[in-house]
Amino acid sequence: MINIKPNGSLHPWRFRLVIGLLGLCCAVISWQIVQLQVLDGGFLRSQGDKRSVRHVAIPAHRGQITDRHGEPLAVSTPVMTLWANPTQLIHQESRWPELAKALGTDLKTFADRLKANAKREFIYLRRHMTPQDGEVITDLKVPGVYSIEEYRRFYPAGEVAAHLVGFTNVDEKGQEGLELAYNEWLEGVPGSRQVLQDRRGRLIKDVQVVRNARPGNDLRMSIDLRLQYIAHRELREALKEFGAKGGSVVLLDVHSGEVLAMVNHPAYNPNNRTNLKPGMMRNRALIDVFEPGSPIKTFTVAAGLMSGRYQPSTVMDTRPGTMRVSTMTVHDIHNYGVLDVSGVMLKSSNVGAAKIALDIGAEPIRDLLQQLGMGEYTGLGFPGESVGTLPSHRRWRPVETATLSYGYGLSTTATQLAQAYAVLGNGGRRVPLSLLKIENPEPGEQIIPADVNQQVLTMLRSVVDGEGGTGSRARVPGYQIGGKTGTVHKTLATGGYAKDRYRSVFAGVAPISNPRFAAVVVVDEPSDGKYYGGLVAAPVFGQVMAGALRLMDIPPDDMPELQQVELPPIKEGTRG
Ligand code: 59J
């Protein structure tokens, strides 16, 4: 009990009032505690966490692209990206000079940019530095400066494989080529990490990994980087020599359908795309279509042989080197007189090809070309691939039949043409093409009967090895090479043909006794007066084939000197 003094200095009612007020205060505070801790606790805690717990993405490693032997063509390397929170960095003016210096920018530019963004919480300072260079700056420990780990794509083969591999953007998303076509396969799934930050956004602590990053898958291409280099170099040298605008080389494995090399000029460096012009990026071998011209004669002749109406020795009269077909005249550049079917191929006679076609009709030729893949996608899945055009008419007029027979009135890509020659190289069987390495090749579908196929191969060989053949510059010492030249007047956008602009083509297979490779070379607009396919494209074909035969260890099938040279008898007693 409290003893109340009688001097009256403390009145009972006052005392009760004070106690009452204190009690009220306690009640209010207790209620507040209950309110904050219990009733609003969850909400307030999450609000607090939102101000200090952050989820940070862990970048996923993008899969690498390699050639068939595992040589890297596209690889992701770790890089450091630096960013700043201007609302913090703005207060660190004394440290701006050292920061600007380390970033390699002048102080004024740096300060202006910071002031312009003073209200923001995020600006990039520098993306994709090497981790070593980045650490020089993070070691300065300037408040408001942060780093993120990222990956950057690097293309070790540079322009040599650029058109096929394509490239990614700065966020590592595929933009072109296989990087685009196989983006989902290559890219992984980013992970996530919880971190604690203080009031100023500085990292206090790594709390936990919520989800690990899942790396992407690797992609093994069918191409052989060594052959890709050879094709790239030989084409570049030929374009220089003949003053040409551009070109393509496609090299196929005839058994597996694998693309062993595919190159184009002009090319570009995927690691530095600052001065890119649109034409440089085009994978011409799959995107550009053109009238193939004489390489189609091979299939006109094959259709003729398949019809049973022709043998390689069947003769026809091509005199006088021209032939009237209703409104049009078919021309040979010389009068070749009487030629057999092999001779039509050897000399590349338009008149001879037209005569065969007018005799057997356009349909069997057209059907054969379709079965060989003309006018349809190759199935390579390359972004932007063209199909070309293979005409079909209910009734073929003689002009249409004649022009088809020597390669006009249709358009193909270089790759489609190479595919058709690969069928010849594969005993007449068509296998699907592939840009990815194949472990178990398919047997393929028989398109050209084996006996006809063999006869056509023999003719292709005579074009290269025979007396007066148009393809002699495609020869490779030690090997039997077969192929067909083509020199095509380019078409004008306004219709008709350009008088003095050409495309030089060579299509063929090797080695003839047991083919392994098919290739097509296209040279666009040689300008130095030489433009025949036999002069411009055939040597490139020969060089590329020579490289392929050597690097793939294909045994020589044409070594007459080995059979002819007689070794002198070893005389007894000449030694010692
Ligand atoms: C030719 C054509 C254009 C289209 C003729 C090339 C036709 C034709 C209308 C004259 C150059 C030239 C449909 S020739 O490819 O015949 O590669 O080594 O462009 O004929 O009718 O001054 N090729 N080329 N013709 N057109 N239309 C030969 C031939 C071919 C060679 C040489 C010389 C043409 C042997 C082409 C080669 O096989």
Brief characterization of the structure:
With 576 residues, this protein is of the alpha+beta class. The chain has 22 helices and 19 strands. Helix 13 (297-306) runs parallel beside helix 15 (350-360).
Secondary structure layout plus pairing:
Blueprint lengths: L11 H28 L1 H10 L2 E6 L6 E2 L5 E13 L1 H4 L6 H8 L3 H10 L6 E7 L1 H8 L6 E10 L7 H4 L11 H5 L1 H4 L4 E7 L5 E9 L7 E2 L4 H18 L3 E8 L5 E7 L12 H4 L2 H4 L9 H10 L8 E3 L4 E4 L2 E4 L6 E3 H7 L2 H11 L1 H10 L26 H8 L8 H12 L3 E2 L14 E2 L3 H16 L16 E10 L5 E14 L6 E8 L8 H4 L1 H14 L8 H5 L12
Helix pairs in contact: 10-21, 13-15, 13-16, 13-19, 14-19, 15-17
Ligand 59J binds next to strand 17 and helix 20.
GO biological process, one term: regulation of cell shape
Pathway: Cell wall biogenesis; peptidoglycan biosynthesis
Subcellular location: Membrane
SS element count, helices: 22
Pick out the low-confidence regions.
none
Number of distinct beta strands: 19
CATH class descriptor name of the domain at 225-269 and 281-551: Alpha Beta
Helix content: 25-40%
The rounded Rg comes to: 37 Å
- Enumerate the distinct ligands: ligand 59J
Overall outline: elongated
Mean pLDDT: 92
Percentage of residues in DSSP E strands = 15-25%
Regarding quaternary structure, how should these chains be classified? single chain
The CATH topology label of the domain at 225-269 and 281-551 is Beta-lactamase
Distance between the termini: 140 Å
Subcellular location: Membrane
EC number: 3.4.16.4
Main location: membrane
Family: Belongs to the transpeptidase family. FtsI subfamily.
